[in-house]
Structure formats: structure tokens, C-alpha cells
Amino acid sequence: MExxxxxxxxxxxxxxxxxxxxxxxxxxxxxxxxxxxxxxxxALIMAAFALICLGGRKTHAExxxxxxxxxxxxxxxxxxxxGMYLSSVRRQAKANGxxxxxxxxxxxxxxxxxxxxxxxxxxxxPWENVYLVRKGKECLYIYVSASRAFLLPDxxxxxxxxxxxxxxxxxxxxxx
Length: 176
Description:
2 domains; alpha+beta; four-stranded mixed β-sheet
């Protein structure tokens, strides 16, 4: 180390494309945040109401119609919600102009922190403050908070980055 300046351990470019972003959004929403629970719960509640209505079909003429409508709503609305979510994610990916040819940011793994640079902006995150790290099939996700993550697509440096991360982040914050 010259002049007290710490040399970078490893620098990776955040060359993410639409597929990477969509894959991340799906993981973040449906796996990590468990966003599938509310639509499923809604569908189950509506199905239960539909079954109750259908159970009264012998005594109430409209029971089959009402039960069918409730069941239809219980199935259609969650499917529409998921479809709208996916459409929104795709629009956001296109609006950001994501491309593997153009890095969105660079992430430098230093001995005591992670440094993220985007243009002239720079942010630093101490290793002990890292919220979560996940190694997916084609990308590393480094969460520096519950709502902010940096994506590092698979490249020749990914394995080295994974080893550095594992050496600096506690095991309960790592998901493979």
C-alpha cells in the first residue's frame, strides 16, 4: 500500500441486461420478499367462499352463480396482478436502457468495504453492513440494505468475487 491508499481487491462491472434485471426482480419479489403469499391467500379465501356458496346450491338458486363468480375472481385477480407486475418490471428494464455492453456501475471489493461507482458518484458500504448476498446461476446479488442491491453478472471474476465476499460477510447473510 502506497501513501496509505488501499489497493482494490477486485473490481467488477455491473453489465446487466433486461434478462438479468427481470430475473433479479422475480427473485427479490417472489423468493426473498415472499410476495406470492398475498395473491395466494386471496385466491384461497375466495375459493373457500365459493365452496361455501356452492354448498348451498340445493337451497339457494343463485348459489352456483355466486360461487362461480367468487372462484373466478379468486383465480383471475391474482393472475392479473402477476401479469401486471411482470409487465411493469419489463417496462422498467427497457426504460433504464440496460445492456451487457454498457456497465451500469462498477463494484470494487476492498479489504474493509464495498465501493460502488456510477459515473462521478461513489458510495461505500462497510462489509459488516452488507444485508444479504446471493449467488444465482448467472448473477451475484449484493444487498447493501433491505431495499438496495447491486447485480454482478457472471464473468471470469465471479468465482474470485464470491470467495472474497464469503471471507468478509457472515454466513447467515449468504444465500447460494
